[in-house]
Write a structure and sequence with these properties.
- It comes from Paenibacillus donghaensis.
- By secondary structure, this protein is an alpha/beta fold.
- It has a single domain, classed as Ribonuclease Z/Hydroxyacylglutathione hydrolase-like (Metallo-beta-lactamase, Chain A, 4-Layer Sandwich), CATH 3.60.15.10.
- It is about 25% helix and about 30% strand.
- The strands form four sheets. A five-stranded mixed sheet has the order 1-2-3-4-5, with no helix packed on it. It has a five-stranded mixed sheet with strand order 8-9-10-11-13, with no helix packed on it.
- Strand 15 and strand 16 form a beta hairpin.
- Helix 6 packs antiparallel against helix 7.
- It is globular.
- The structure holds ligand L45E5XJ5.
Length: about 290
C-alpha cells in the first residue's frame, strides 16, 4: 500500500499489516491492523491529529493503547475519544498535560528540528488536553484480539510504573514501548514518576523468560526492529552501571538531568539517587 507522510509524522510500512507512524523523528507509534480491528500503540506528543493518516491505512474500528503516561507517548490521546493506559500512569499523564510542559517539550524538539517550526501550530497545540478522553485501564495479561492478530499485554514497571509492552506471539513481534530500546532510556525523573531499578530488573527478567516467543522488537524510540539479545544487554547494563559509573557524563534535558551510562548498544540515563538506592538494594540481597 502507498503511504503518505506529513512534515511531522513519517509513515513507514513494516509488513504484515503493521505500520510505524514516527512523530518528529522521535516517537515510534505502531499501527497494527488485523482482520476486524486495528490498534495504535502510542500516539506521540500529538503535535498534529494523526487520525487522517490512520484513515488512509484502515477503516476498521481503532483501539488506542498508550505504552505509558509520558508526554511523548500519550499526550496525543487528546485527538481520540477513548484510550487505554495502565492505571499507575494516568496521574503522570495528567500532570504532564500543562501548557508549560508542552511548551518546554516543543522548544526542545524544535531546537533539534528547526525545519518543523512552520508545520506545528503552537497555539493550537498548547490548547489541547487529554483530560476529556475516556480512559480504560489496561492490565497485565489483557489480550487485544484484532482478528488474525492477537496482542498480549505485558506489564513492565521501570522507566515508569505503568509501562507496558504488547506481544504478538504468533508473529513473534514485541512492541516494547520505552522499556526495551537501543535509544536512551530515562531513569532520572522523581521517584513517584519512575520505578526503582530493582523493579526494572524484574521486568527485564520477565521478558527474558518470554524470549523464545520473540524474534523482533519494535521500540518506541530509535531503530527497529531490534534483536532479542537487547534484553540481556539491558540487564547486564544495570549490573555494569553499579560497578562502572565513575566516568559517566552529565546529561541535561527539559525534564531534568542525569548521568549517561553506555553499555554495548544500550544507554541508561539515571539519577545519582536512583543508582545509590539500587546499590543499597543489591547489598541487602547479598
Ligand atoms: N517526559 C519524557 C520525555 C522524553 N523522554 C525520553 O526522551 C528521549 C527523547 O529522545 P530524542 O532523541 O527523541 O530527543 C526518549 O528516550 C524519551 O523516552 C522521557 O523519557 N520522558
Amino acid at each position: 500500500m502507498k503511504t503518505r507522510s506529513t512534515a511531522v509524522n513519517q509513515v513507514i510500512e513494516l509488513g504484515n499489516g503493521n505500520y510505524c507512524i514516527r512523530e518528529a523523528e522521535s516517537t515510534n507509534c505502531y499501527l497494527l491492523i488485523g482482520e476486524k480491528k486495528a490498534l495504535i500503540f502510542d500516539v506521540g506528543y500529538g503535535y498534529e491529529d494523526i487520525k487522517p493518516l490512520i484513515a488512509e491505512l484502515t477503516d476498521l474500528p481503532l483501539i488506542v493503547v498508550n505504552s505509558h503516561g509520558d508526554p511523548d507517548h500519550a499526550l496525543g490521546s487528546c485527538w481520540f475519544a477513548e484510550a487505554y493506559i495502565h492505571e499507575l500512569d494516568l496521574g503522570k499523564l495528567f500532570r504532564n498535560d500543562t501548557p508549560e510542559m508542552k511548551q518546554k517539550a516543543l522548544d526542545y524538539r524544535l531546537n533539534k528540528l528547526p525545519a518543523l517550526k512552520p508545520h506545528i501550530d503552537r497555539d493550537m497545540y498548547l490548547k489541547t488536553s487529554v483530560k476529556g478522553v475516556n480512559y480504560r485501564f489496561v492490565r497485565e495479561g489483557e489480550v487485544f484480539d484484532l482478528g488474525g492478530k492477537v496482542l498480549e499485554t505485558i506489564h513492565l514497571p521501570g522507566h515508569s510504573y505503568g509501562c507496558i509492552a504488547l506481544l504478538d506471539a504468533k508473529n513473534k513481534d514485541l512492541f516494547s514501548g520505552d522499556m526495551v530500546t537501543k535509544h536512551n532510556i530515562w531513569y532520572f525523573l522523581p521517584a513517584d514518576e519512575q520505578a526503582p531499578f530493582r523493579q526494572a530488573v524484574s521486568s527485564y527478567r520477565k521478558l527474558q523468560r518470554r524470549k523464545a516467543e520473540i524474534a523482533r522488537i519494535y521500540p518506541a524510540h530509535g531503530s527497529f526492529p531490534i534483536g532479542v539479545g537487547i534484553i540481556d544487554q539491558l540487564l547486564d547494563s544495570l549490573e555494569d552501571m553499579k560497578q562502572n559509573h565513575a566516568s559517566d557524563l552529565y546529561f541535561e534535558s527539559f525534564a531534568g538531568s542525569g548521568y549517561q551510562h553506555y553499555y554495548k548498544d544500550t544507554l541508561i540515563i539515571y539519577s545519582k539517587a536512583r543508582l545509590e538506592e539500587f546499590m543499597e538494594d543489591s547489598a541487602h540481597e547479598d
